[in-house]
Design a protein that fits this description.
The structure is a single chain. The chain is α/β, with parallel strands linked by helices and about 850 residues long. It folds into 7 domains: about 10-120, PriA, 3(prime) DNA-binding domain (GIY-YIG endonuclease, 3-Layer(aba) Sandwich); about 125-190, Winged helix-like DNA-binding domain superfamily/Winged helix DNA-binding domain (Arc Repressor Mutant, subunit A, Orthogonal Bundle), CATH 1.10.10.10; about 195-280, no CATH class; about 300-480, P-loop containing nucleotide triphosphate hydrolases (Rossmann fold); about 485-530 and about 605-725, P-loop containing nucleotide triphosphate hydrolases (Rossmann fold, 3-Layer(aba) Sandwich); about 535-590, no CATH class; about 740-830, Ribosomal protein S10 (Alpha-Beta Plaits, 2-Layer Sandwich), CATH 3.30.70.600. Strand 22 (about 555-560) and strand 23 (about 565) form a beta hairpin. Helix 1 (about 90-100) packs across helix 2, helix 10 (about 300-310) crosses helix 11 (about 330-340) and helix 24 (about 750-770) packs antiparallel against helix 25. It is globular, with a radius of gyration of 32 Å. It starts with 16 loop residues before the first strand and ends with a strand. The model is unreliable at about 1-10 (pLDDT under 50). Belongs to the helicase family. PriA subfamily. Component of the replication restart primosome. Keywords: ATP-binding, DNA replication, DNA-binding, Helicase, Hydrolase, Isomerase, Metal-binding, Nucleotide-binding, Primosome, Zinc.
Length: about 850
């Protein structure tokens, strides 16, 4: 794809066409015709507005320019060019195409996920009065009323018309008026991104010189309120010493914030030409910092940093295996400074927004406002500003979650994937179902950048690649500041229940440890990987349980909201006062989640300050930051949370961690369960005892302390875990020795879903063999949103197999299913490298 500007004389003028990426799930590009006045301006990577279908107007991205009309359809015109310079780079278009091929989806689906919503255009149907309408006698009384309303406005949206006419069917009414040629319907296209504007005032240029300013103040002697407004302006903008300061002006609110009289006086001064008002675009990331020029590394951190640079001299990808609390972030900062000093860009990926809150503050102290931040809790406008800041060069360094891989970098020198083992890097819905770590590696390959994968508990696949010599490996097994790893002990809850020493869900050991911690003024973290109050309600008499109407799963009880809620489809119900089946009043909660633990803590320790951090308490934009800030400043004694509290948070005063329900984590029916249990519990254990002057404690509640993985967690024996896991993976042909593709067949009729899955599975096995195609089988949750699910797992060897050809065969088998008359209503979800 070459960005050619076409220039022809009138005699040899050739029509320009563009191939566009449209944000729709269709596996192809679309060709459109370019208007003559747009031909010299349009470029590859620019956004355009185009018509699609009968009435849609959508945003597309230019993928190529040429002069070949499409063969099978009449090309329509590009309506509008949105960008003077491209907002999508050539590398991004290459990435979109690669992801569509690798993750078996459409390039439009990739683009739809990649572009922030603020860069996509919306069209809104509007209605206006037709000035050429000549037959009012054709109108009904209702239409006459509406026409009178339309005459008063330049145009109205369907929604605005609905408010005017009440309960009338607006589309039917408009359709009638269009048929009578009484109104004109058109699409008003709006770009979602809205710059942040600040209203300012400044003295008119006639008063910039000292003698002119003095004369103005003397003239206002008899108007003290107006004179006070001018004096207030001069206190903020000392232009009497430097007239040039007046150009930037002062925010209007600063002058009229005190009282209504000052607002009135300012208005009079503007009217009389003393002040002039104007607007400026203000960046949303305008905080100012005083960056510290360098960070001081310990001897161990310096050795690690130097070793990483040495490995980068030979390999493009390096695994940095550093135990929890070893100070990996300081090493990252040292490497980032080196890369930025060399003029290249840096991308720093984190798995969770919760992690960015604390680390961002640390990084801003070093890099100031030159650093961009990108994650889904930001508004559309904020994300667009970061996107444009990368294009313009304002941000050479961006920290963000998985979606940051789509930012328009074109000169990457380093990508850091922190906590690379985390499942949060994998997107599950919608397509593309990508893994940000793997996408980052491909992006780095194209831009000749280096990739640093960091983790205290690397994924088995990553550590295997490092042991095989494909990745470099640097390890740091010393905690920062000579702090010790926490002391971990197991609490046998089965035994405590027999002895009746449990206090609700708390063992006596954990209860006593919490009490001691509170007495010493130290903080505690409690980890339970289940939110809500209770997993479900059950009737003691007839054993009825609360079930979702749409999904094959129980409804979780949320006490604070007083509702039963499905965590799959969002369905909500009121809590029944009696059993819906038998009428019994003996309806009880079963199991426990973070909300219930929080309530029990308030009862057990009424004086304690308790906070909960899970999906329910962190929905607001700044909720993570507020909770972490409160805990960091010592305003919270006990923090209860789900796995978001396991990831990289650093608190000096945490000396105790309690882990609940370890057995459920370990026994999850999935081949990675042991690895995930080790990672999760090791990571949350690492939050304890990060100061050198005291060793932290970790108490794990389990009904079976003999489980092998628990001893490995106690010993911090990652290498022992790896040695056992890699043998099992090899024996049963799981990653890293194979690639996995999961196909999920869905339909509202279980028989149709089963039949489609059986046919698809048979077609795949006939070519690939039964040993490579497993299933179909129903997943743990067999029905979601009234769709019955069947899974097919395809295991493909990493060596001696044409992965691209196999994927093309799988796609053709799926197409056969989707075009079969009896099965075409099914849908098939493709998940490449499924977790």
């Amino acid at each position: 794809m070459t960005d050619t500007l076409f220039s022809y004389t009138d005699a040899e003028e050739v029509t320009l066409f563009v191939d566009l990426v449209l944000p729709i799930p269709v596996p192809r590009l679309f060709t459109y015709r370019v208007k003559r006045d747009m031909a010299a301006l349009i470029k590859i990577g620019a956004r355009v507005i185009v018509p699609f279908g009968k009435s849609r107007v959508i945003t597309a991205v230019v993928a190529s320019l040429h002069n070949h009309p499409p063969q099978n359809y009449q090309a329509r015109y590009v309506l509008e060019l949105l960008d003077e310079y491209p907002l999508v780079t050539g590398y991004q278009l290459q990435l979109f195409a690669w992801m569509a091929e690798y993750y078996m989806c459409c390039i439009g689906e990739v683009m739809n996920v990649a572009l922030p919503s603020g860069l996509k255009i919306t069209s809104q149907s509007k209605v206006q009065y037709n000035p050429d309408f000549e037959h009012p006698d054709l109108l009904t009384p209702q239409e006459v009323t509406l026409m009178e309303d339309l005459k008063k406005h330049p145009s109205l949206s369907y929604e605005e018309l609905g408010r005017l006419v009440g309960e009338v069917n607006v589309p039917t009414l408009i359709k009638s008026l269009v048929g009578k040629r009484a109104v004109i319907v058109f699409d008003e296209v709006k770009e979602k991104y809205v710059p942040k504007m600040v209203r300012k005032v400044r003295l008119h240029r006639n008063y910039e010189q000292p003698e002119q300013l003095l004369a103005l103040l003397q003239r206002l002697d008899k108007l003290p309120k107006q004179q006070e407004v001018v004096m207030r302006y001069l206190r903020h903008v000392p232009m009497q010493r430097n007239p040039a300061l007046n150009e930037q002006g002062l925010e209007k609110g600063i002058l009229n914030q005190d009282d209504e009289l000052s607002q009135s006086s300012l208005g009079t001064l503007v009217k009389n030409g003393v002040f002039e008002t104007f607007e400026l675009i203000q960046p949303r990331f305008s905080d100012t910092f005083s960056p510290q020029k360098e960070i001081v590394l310990t001897a161990a951190q310096r050795t690690a940093s130097d070793s990483i640079m040495a490995e980068f001299a030979q390999k493009n990808i390096v695994l940095f295996h550093g135990i929890t609390g070893s100070g990996k972030t300081e090493v990252y900062i040292d490497l980032i400074q080196k890369v930025l000093a060399g003029g290249s860009q840096v991308m720093y990926l984190l798995p969770e927004i919760a992690l960015t809150t604390q680390i961002v503050v640390r990084l801003q102290k070093v890099f100031g406002d030159k650093m961009g931040i990108y994650h889904s809790k930001f508004s559309d406008n904020e994300r667009v500003e970061v996107w444009k800041g990368v294009v313009s060069g304002q941000f050479q360094f961006v920290i963000g979650v998985r979606s940051a891989v789509f930012l328009p970098f074109d000169n990457l020198g380093l990508i850091i994937v922190d906590e690379e083992h985390e499942t949060s890097y994998k997107q599950h819905d919608p397509a593309p179902r990508y893994h940000a770590r793997d996408v980052a590696m491909m992006l780095a390959h194209w831009q000749q950048a280096k990739v640093l994968l960091g983790s205290a508990t690397p994924s088995i696949e990553t550590y295997y690649q490092a042991k095989q010599g494909r990745y470099g490996l640097v390890e740091l097994f010393q905690r920062y500041g000579d702090a010790n790893l926490p002391f971990i002990s197991l609490i046998n809850t089965k035994q405590e229940k027999k002895q009746k020493t449990m206090k609700n869900e708390f063992s006596s050991a954990l209860y006593n440890a919490l009490a001691d911690n509170l007495e010493r003024g130290e903080q505690s973290i409690l980890f339970q990987n289940r939110r809500g109050y209770s997993p479900y309600l059950q009737c003691e008499d007839c054993e009825w349980t609360s079930q979702c109407l749409n999904c094959a799963v129980s409804l979780t009880y949320h006490q604070r909201a007083a509702e039963l809620r499905c965590h799959y489809c969002g369905h909500k119900e009121d809590v029944p006062k009696v059993c819906p089946t038998c009428g019994s009043t003996k309806v009880r909660t079963v199991g426990y989640g973070t909300e219930k633990l929080e309530d029990q803590l308030q009862i057990l320790f009424p004086a304690a300050r308790i906070q909960r951090m899970d999906l329910d308490t962190t929905r607001a934009k700044n909720a993570y930051q507020q909770i972490i800030s409160e805990f960091e400043h010592g305003n919270v004694d006990i923090l209860v949370g789900t796995q978001m509290i396991t990831k990289g948070l650093d608190f000096d005063n945490v000396s105790l961690v309690g882990i609940f329900d370890a057995d459920r984590i370990i026994r999850w029916p999935e081949f990675r369960a042991t690895e995930r249990a080790f990672q999760m519990m090791t990571q949350v254990s690492g939050r304890a005892g990060r100061r050198a002057d005291r060793q932290g404690r970790v108490l794990i509640q389990t009904s079976d302390p003999s489980q092998v993985v628990l001893q490995k967690i106690i010993d911090n024996d990652y290498l022992g875990l790896y040695d056992e896991e890699i043998v099992e993976r090899r024996d049963f042909n799981y990653p890293p020795f194979s690639r996995l593709i999961k196909l999920t067949v869905r339909h509202t009729d279980q028989r149709v879903s089963k039949k489609a899955a059986d046919v698809l599975c048979a077609s795949l096995a006939a070519q690939l063999g039964d040993e490579r195609v497993l299933g179909p089988e129903q997943p743990l949750v067999e029905r979601i949103r009234n769709q019955f699910l069947y899974d097919i797992l395809i295991k493909l060897e990493r060596e001696k197999i044409n992965f691209k050809a196999v994927k093309a065969f799988i796609q053709s088998c799926i197409t056969d299913i989707l075009t079969d008359k009896g099965l075409r209503a099914v849908s098939v979800i493709i998940d490449v490298d499924c977790l």
